[in-house]
Amino acid sequence: MSRLSPGDPNSYSRPDQVLVTGIHLEWDVDFTCKVVTGSVLLTVERKGEDAPHLILDTRELTIKSVKVEETGQVLTYTLGDHHPNFGSPLTVTLPSDIKKQCKIQIEYKTSPGCSALQWLSPEQTAGKKHPYVFSQCQAIHCRSLLPCQDTPSVKMPYTAEVTAPSDLVVLMSALRDGQSEGASKTTFRFRQPVPMPSYLIALAVGALESRRVGPRSLVWSEKEYVEKAEFEFAQTEEMLVAAESLCGPYVWGQYDLLILPPSFPYGGMENPCLTFVTPTLLAGDRSLADVVAHEISHSWTGNLVTNSHWEHFWLNEGFTMFVERKIASRLHGEPTRHFSALGGWKDLAECIRTRGENDPLTNLVPDLTGVDPDDAFSTVPYEKGHTLLWHLETLVGGPSDFEPFLRAYLDKFKYQSITSETFRSFLLEYFNGRVSGLADIDWKAWWNTPGMPPIKPQFDDSLAVECRELCKRWVEWNTDTDCPFFAKDLASLSSNQVREWLAQLLEEEPLSVAKLEKMEELYSMSKRQNAEIKFRWLRLGLRAHWTECVDDALKFITEQGRMKFVRPIYRDLYQWEDMRAKAVATYNTHKDSMMRVAAYVVAKDLHLRE
Ligand code: BES
Ligand code: ZN
Fold first, then answer.
1. Is there a contact between 13 and 56 (Cβ–Cβ < 8 Å)?
2. What angle do CA 285, 291, 294 make, to 5 degrees?
3. Is the torsion defined by CA of 205, 206, 207, 213 positive or negative?
């Protein structure tokens, strides 16, 4: 397969010929048919005299009509062949006498199988009374929600009017701009004045309530979660302030959080003005709020300075990990930043072990020709990208030199979409021969070589020492001798240290069931509600072929749909031959209530699909 277009391997669009500069959406949300019907009004600009075609990405959309808004002139269009991952190009022929700038209106509807949307029946929600729908467009699912130039190289402002049953609330990744109530339906208006890429368009409709947690922040969720959320995310404003001190003013106005139903497939998603998060962050002790710091960071790295296509995804995620950990440092001290980076290095090592150190998708800048970004998704852009930035920070002389550079980079490229090369040129230009080490960086080793990064930074491991000692003692304990452990062993560890201790145990040979039973007896591990701890504890059990934890594991992967947790557990069950059939049966029973992207990748993990 070849690249779909010169500018983006995963998009058919040709913004170099005709560019979309604005979007207005008019939608009706139909819970009965599980479709969104309506229209999109695209402001387009011809880039060349002889550019007669507007090419848009679509996926399983039904197109009803294409018109010039001003004159009502009906335009001819063709829908190209359907590709299972990339969809089909919609090619609209523009009349030769059309102005350089014009508005094209497309009437259409989505299909019930729309990969961007998850429709929940009332029984699948916390309140059980009302239906719910939410979207996840990153990386290339926006095309299943609207015809658009579905490439992050194109940025535009958008407005929307969304109609839904009156007992529901509609939210989008935009500022709320009022609502009009009809007999049984309400229309909600939205406005996103900051130009942004299509993958940040987002929608949620449900029985939602809100609580204020800061001067520019509300938390939204079904009422069952709202109080817990208010407590969990109370530090939002503090994080925003820390991020602004590092990155510059927050330009998006509002920063709200929406706690989604458990099937939300990610930890968080940086939808502008309204971050989406999984309810698995509601640990009750604010210990998982780093995900919020991460999504806040995307307000600059990703949402202002954007990767121009998904091969440069590390520009979004590696930078965001870096800023996230800077915020952690400002809030909790520099050792916390090092502790988190060390944990990230370990996650990276595990990821590369699982994928294989020669897998070309472990390149920091992989070739995505013919590759669905959902298949390429991994820890690599996050942690290898973060390691590169950490290394650069050390090389240029530390935070006092690197942080001003970061600020200058964000200021220079805000509202733009860039490639890795743009970043490199700016770095070299900024330090302009003042830092000798920069000339010696082996960019090929960092960007275009699979496996672990060429250099491991020196992380301060003071917060990991206790975890490591306890891990070592458990590994070395001979169960024929007296048990040297006590219930209070974990008392002095923070929940992130307990998580780290489990992560270290997971790097060792599988523990014996006898040891795990002892841990359970002393530490009541299976009663812990923190999802990161639960996840690692269950994996330890599965690795040890501990039959008693299987039901808990199956419960965990069917009660919530966060892929970071669901995929490794399914893979562990698959590895354990006695449990393979059970894993497949569980998947088959639950796949229809999973979000489509999650069902798609788990099918691959279970070798049910190529
Ligand atoms: N933007 C990502 C989520 C994403 C990436 C969705 C690619 C679809 C395609 C988000 O910012 C993210 O990285 N979430 C992480 C949070 C973590 C690294 C703190 C997650 O979901 O676990
Ligand atoms: Zn991210």
1. yes
2. 140
3. negative
What per-residue confidence (pLDDT) applies to 610?
86
Residue pLDDT, tens place only, 358-373 = 999 999 999 999 999 9
Is residue 295 annotated as part of the catalytic site, yes or no? yes
Distance from chain centroid for Cα 152: 14
For residue 367, give every residue at least 6 positions away whose Cβ sits within 8 Å of its Cβ, in sequence order, or none.
9, 311, 360
Between CA 308 and CA 418 the distance in angstroms is: 5
Q: Ligand 1: which atom is nearest the Cα of residue 293?
A: 19
pLDDT band at 51 (very low <50, low <70, confident <90, very high): confident
Active site residue 429: no
Q: Are strands 132-135 and 175-181 parallel, antiparallel or unpaired?
A: unpaired
Output the CA 287–ligand 1 centroid distance in Å.
18
Q: What is the per-residue pLDDT across 13-41, written as a single tens digit (0 to 9) for each?
A: 999 999 999 999 999 999 999 999 999 99
| pLDDT at residue number 433 | 84
Output the CATH code of domain 208-299: 3.30.2010.30
What tokens were used for 498? Answer: 């307990």
Q: With 0-12 CB in 10 A as exposed, 13-18 as middle and 19+ as buried, what is 312? A: buried
Q: How much is the pTM? A: 0.98
Fold entry, domain 309-447? Neutral Protease; domain 2 (1.10.390)
CA of 532 to the centre of ligand 2 (A): 17
Q: What is the CATH architecture assignment of 1-204? A: Sandwich (2.60)
CA of 51 to the centre of ligand 1 (A): 37
Digit-coded pLDDT (tens) for 542-554:
999 999 999 999 9
Joined together, the tokens standing for residue 226 give 């709202």
Whole-angstrom CA distances from 492 to 80, 466, 470, 477 are 61, 9, 12, 21
Position 480: which residue type? Answer: D
**Among 295, 317, 324, 500, which one carries the catalytic annotation?**
295
